[in-house]
């Protein structure tokens, strides 16, 4: 008998029919003898409906009351799923964030979990109940309702799994696992049986939006085995595992992530004096614009070019700020370009394998793709290229690194 | 500065526009310097929507989960009204039943309030907040969400007023007060400035459905001054008062209540033996059919006629049961009649005024109305008549007892 935490998102519980289907699935696990904690989101559309009501009242409604309002969405789902389980003869009980006592800080609409009281839950688990817990919500130490922000239900599931030392935390989604790259772009894209937490973090932040980053971080920190599966198709999904357990079998590259969401800004001819990077990026940060890739070329004749990327939606605003700064710094020109894409190779295996970067650059050169920017981390190499070459780049790299082939055992370099 | 508890029902908060209108009203009271606790129901339609979802899953969903489900309705309203007040610069805070701690028993969907913790509320009142409390809901001693049953928001308001020893509990509705009788039937029907709790109970149970009976009982028990007012029209409403405070001015008759909801059942020719009333009414009660007026005529030749009224919807079912009993008792016949109406004079003043009953019967005889059944209590005289004479009876009585005339002082008989 295992203790399993399962999380079903808004789409998976988006109608009574789907809630019944989830109840069927839970019933099968129950018959296999597992103890189960089910974390649910609001029915799809419900959170937006509630936010819509608030916005009819005010463009900036009180955050405390926003949490009171939207937290009702998950509570409704917990009641309905519990009823569906009860109908099947399965003892089940709903819990909201306050009833579990998922203690958070008081940062309304983006609270962080501090502590989970597992006492009541354990009592009901031991008494044979399936527990249906409202995701995404908690309560601060003064009893105020808080929410963890959108997608926080994944975090709730992982945190409950950690608190209960569950055998596995299963996140049910609309995909059947994590892929080597987007299957819509590369025919040979392959579902991974497992990835490491670090790889998953890099994949998630690069737009493979299967899991919330916070949930993955949390799972990694508390070593909760996490599995991504399809809500309504059977299959093993992808296990996100603690790295060193199966280190020997780790392939060099786990997958290829990419994004079209960024834009590139270049300040040309900046006098290369100490503190110039801060003078450029300080005001950008102050304007709450997130910066991703940053590259500064070596100085030629005492002036340099400074380039960075931001989210495409922020390009115009960033350009406005840079134009002002450029004038102050006597820089030559500011160029903005939103026709770019970022492609990343991700894999903890590349740590111990030299030559991955040059192999990547060679593969891109072979298909005549010019690299505009490069950044690297321990387990990721990213390049910025012209957007129109994105598909060509991803397909070439997927093929060169043989990602369509199932790894069969120890990888020898 | 007074402490006022105000309750707004589902229709009064049925849309964002109406919630804004309630906020405007609260703002005016606030400017007058009052401390305010606002009790709200779910937006009209919302409770039915939620019940509909549950019934898609099961015809008899788990009661514990029904409470979890429907209690979200009021929580949504508390958040929205708090936002609307905050927008007006008024510090306001929502509370659900668990947050106040409205402790109830564990009878899900029809729980009774045991205790209210007024500590947090008082703290926030003293800190200058308007408190917006979810009506209709509480929490049992194990932290399970409970609800008080439909209309329980009135009870919440009265219970909060009692716990906080509020100066007044104001129930906002879609009528501007309690009338001597239904204004749609009698042009001269007059809004009463005040009625006693006992009168209000008799009026409420007779179909003047302005307030929940439980709320009135509660208010009477804890001597909470209760006022019925119109949500969106200004006016003094009707005060429901503790009797002895203004006893001298109490008029003989407060008003005339009536109902068309009942049906009459008569068992003719029942052998008049001990226990016969129980033999007839026992099975009716066992079938959960509520009985209202009961009359048994004196025995003639060792047999009697036994008559009672039930809700019209239950007539057929009651008839079926009586046919079986009549056979067992060797009674002659069972007659069912749903073409009846009940008319009641209500007034604590009639206690000390002899002759009200005969005056009533004389008034009905003057317009040739035959009385089929009579029952009396200390403060009420009810007659059952043919339904087609209902309007004539009510108008005649309203005129004979001069209810269209505002009482001016001490009534001398």
From TrEMBL, chains A, B:
Family (UniProt): Belongs to the aspartokinase family.
Name listed for the protein in its UniProt record: Aspartokinase
InterPro entries recorded: AceGlu_kinase-like_sf (IPR036393), ACT-like_dom_sf (IPR045865), ACT_Aspartokinase (IPR054352), ACT_dom (IPR002912), AKii-LysC-BS (IPR041740), Asp/Glu/Uridylate_kinase (IPR001048), Asp_kin_monofn (IPR005260), Asp_kinase (IPR001341)
PROSITE patterns attached to this UniProt entry: ACT, ASPARTOKINASE
GO MF term list: aspartate kinase activity
Entry superkingdom: Bacteria
Lineage: Bacteria, Pseudomonadati, Pseudomonadota, Gammaproteobacteria, Cellvibrionales
Organism of provenance: Candidatus Litorirhabdus singularis
Domain ACT residue range list: 265-348
EC numbers for this chain: 2.7.2.4
Catalytic activity: L-aspartate + ATP = 4-phospho-L-aspartate + ADP
Pathways involved: Amino-acid biosynthesis; L-lysine biosynthesis via DAP pathway; (S)-tetrahydrodipicolinate from L-aspartate: step 1/4; Amino-acid biosynthesis; L-methionine biosynthesis via de novo pathway; L-homoserine from L-aspartate: step 1/3; Amino-acid biosynthesis; L-threonine biosynthesis; L-threonine from L-aspartate: step 1/5
Annotated keywords: Amino-acid biosynthesis, ATP-binding, Kinase, Lysine biosynthesis, Nucleotide-binding, Transferase
